[in-house]
Amino acid sequence: KDFGEFERALALHNMDLQLRIRKFGHASVFVAISYNNMGELYRAQGQRNEALRYFDKARAIFENSPGEIHVHAGGTFTNMGEVFREQGDFQSALTHYGKALWIYEHPQSAIHQPNESRISAGKTHNNIGLVYAAQAQYPRALGSYKKALDIFKSTVDENHINFAETYNNIGLVYLDQELGEEALKWFKKALNIYKGTLGEKHHRVGLTRFHMAAAFHKLGKGEKALKFCRDALNLFSVKELFFISWQIVSANLSYLLHRAASMRPWSTT
Q1: d(CA 124, CA 105)
Q2: Which residues contact 249 (CB under 8 A, 6 or more apart)?
Q3: Which pTM does this prediction carry?
């Protein structure tokens, strides 16, 4: 989002925070939720240290709230885990994901919000898989993804986007291990769900097509790789490609990207 939108959103969140403090007091879980929301806003802007500062304010309130286990606290620990993962601090990420899981699986959470807690636990297992995959601990990553899928099977429809996210991540694990055929199997499952739920032109469809292009490239199927790369490029502007360029580079698609780019008119919007 552009800086003007961020400033407006930040002003609204600050107003909300002050209203909650006046109404409920500084130690209220409603104030903690507001701090968490502000942290998410800063994280979306890439201001991770500032995001962590607000997430930590929320964490402190949740941990000092007597009696109840708050599912929202699980969200805060998950958000902190995400920031640490993005910063490459994998041990801290795992620690905070573990705290989130403890909350989602706690009997109180199961009583008050059973389905929501189970789904959140599934997403957290998926995130833990991302940490293991980033460290090339592939069996552990696949184990975490399997736990996520097992939970989703009992909580959401088989065409839910949560399945697509995990299918895509499993495909990336196999792609990293040069197992192109196995990777393609999972990418296709993810692509079908993304197209059915988000539409043909969504950026997740484009990213999955990039991943499939990388798999075809590793299998020596150059023309197919080029086709999927070109189809993916048609869904993005130059500005959007800048933000996903690390995925293209990590998938070793620079050569294909250069060829495919020469075949399309570029939009800078």
Answers
A1: 11
A2: none
A3: 0.86
> Are the beta carbons of 151 and 194 closer than 8 angstroms?
no
Of the ranges 46-50, 70-74, 109-113, 123-127, which one carries the lowest mean pLDDT score?
109-113
Q: Tell me if 226 sits within 8 A of 262, measured CB to CB.
A: no
Comparing CA positions, the residue from 164, 143, 163, 166 lying closest to residue 153 is 163
Q: CA–CA separation, 74 vs 62, rounded Å? A: 10
Q: What is the 3-state secondary structure (H, E, C) of the chain?
A: CCHHHHHHHHHHHHHHHHHHHHHHCCCCHHHHHHHHHHHHHHHHCCCHHHHHHHHHHHHHHHHCCCCCCCHHHHHHHHHHHHHHHHCCCHHHHHHHHHHHHHHHCCHHHHHHCHHHHHHHHHHHHHHHHHHHHHCCCHHHHHHHHHHHHHHHHCCCCCCCHHHHHHHHHHHHHHHHCCCHHHHHHHHHHHHHHHHHHHCCCCHHHHHHHHHHHHHHHHCCCHHHHHHHHHHHHCCCCHHHHHHHHHHHHHCCCHHHHHHHHCCCCCCCC
Q: Which conformational region is residue 89 in: left (phi greater than 0), alpha (psi within -120 to 50 degrees), or beta?
A: beta
pLDDT at 261: 47
Task: Tell me which residue has tokens 């020469």.
Answer: 262
Residue whose entry in the numeric block shows the structure tokens 């997740």: 204
Which residues have a Cβ under 8 Å from the Cβ of 250 and sit 6 or more positions away? none
Q: What percent of the chain has pLDDT over 90?
A: 66
